[in-house]
UniProtKB/TrEMBL annotation:
InterPro entries: CRA_dom, CTLH/CRA, CTLH_C, Ubq-SigPath_Reg. This is CTLH domain-containing protein. It holds the Pfam family CTLH. Coiled coil: none annotated.
Length: 138
């Protein structure tokens, strides 16, 4: 996948998430082998990757992982963070913006209506969720 070739940080985070899932599922030997073969070489290239790898592997040192200093790695928010990073990379690669455009368009609509209120009488959208129009009072 071209996105992963051009974004080493994203690739690392996906691999890190895979390691977290192996640890979550109690596959300690497989997790250690994966960390050594796939993630350690990347950590040697990048200091921040190495720090993240060390933090992730330290999950193996705790019996009660969820209440450990690194327990947040097992939280659903970690999965969501990785998923958001993947989504943003995909949108960027397809020449879309990282953020959805609809909220900005709705703000622009409200601004335009406020500008028109001073200058014209027109059917105004009163409910954005249903696009209900209010007839102008003439």
């Amino acid at each position: 996948m071209q996105i992963l070739d051009t974004n080493p940080q994203l690739f690392f985070h996906l691999q890190q998430q895979r390691l977290i899932e192996l640890i979550r599922n109690g596959k300690v030997e497989e997790a250690l082998e994966f960390a050594q073969e796939e993630l350690a070489p990347r950590g040697e290239e990048n200091q921040s990757f190495l720090e993240e790898l060390e933090r992730t592997v330290s999950l193996l040192a705790f019996e009660d992982v969820k209440n450990s200093p690194v327990g947040d790695l097992l939280d659903i928010s970690q999965r969501l963070k990785t998923a958001s990073e993947v989504n943003a990379a995909i949108l960027t690669s397809q020449s879309h913006e990282k953020d959805p455009k609809l909220p900005g368009l709705l703000r622009m609509l409200l601004w335009a209506q406020n500008q028109l209120d001073e200058k014209a009488v027109y059917p105004r959208i009163t409910d954005l969720s249903t696009a209900t129009l209010q007839d102008p009072s003439v």
